[in-house]
Every structure is written in C-alpha cells, then in structure tokens.
Predict the structure of Microsomal glutathione S-transferase 1.
Amino acid sequence: MATLMEEEVFMAFTTYATIVLLKMLLMAPMTAYFRFNRGAFANEEDVALKPAEERKKLFRTHPDVERVRRCHMNDLENIVPFVLIGLLYALTGPELSTALLHFRFFTACRIFHSIAYVGALPQPCRALSWMLGLLVTFSMAYRVLGKVLVL
C-alpha cells in the first residue's frame, strides 16, 4: 500500500477524485441554501415549527431548488462511476500524461456541468459537458478491460 501511494498516477487520481467528490458534497449545502433563500422546503417536518398559514407557503417546490437538486443527483450518477473506474484505471499503470488528461478533463467537465446546470446556461452546454465527461469514464473503462479482461 505504501508503494501505491508513491505512484504518480495514483496520487493524481486521488487528487482529482477528491476534487470531484468535494464538488459533489458541496451541492448539498448549496441545495439547503437555495431552499432557505427561496423559502421552498421538501418535508413537512422542515416547516413544522412555523404557523399553519406560513407552512402552506413554505412546503412547496421551487424551480431553482429543483435545478440544484437535480444537478446533485446527476453528480451521483457520474462521479461515483468515475471514482470506481478511475481507481481501477489508475491500477492498470497508464502513462501519467494520459491519466492526467483523463482526470483533468473529467473534473473540468463536471465543474462546467454544474455551472451550466445551476446557472441555467442554454443547451447544448450542459449536455456536451455531461457527454464528454461520460466519454472520459468510458475511455478509462475501455483501458481497464483491455488490460485485464479475463473471461
């Protein structure tokens, strides 16, 4: 394990995996911020201490809150596979420059995807950033299977 931590590719993977995982974690407080800021709560217990009339106004959805929440869900669908496949990819011993290209490109795509999603940028901004990030993950998966495929 100590020698693995000294490998440059593994350290690069660890760096970029941590960045995208932190980005994903920060979406939850951002959702909470939008909920409080827009006065739109998803659960009755969130507004239980408010007067009855105010509860009716606060127990609702808001497009901005839903946009941030959907962005967070999209992160779960994309970042988790990247981390798992990226770990396997890093263990196959790729060239550092190629690995860095994969890790950096995916990270940039996910950050831009969140900006496009939350900022409601016009399509195809969000779709392209999602698709390119997905292609990076598929590229790493292809490399893993090409290196270790045993049937």
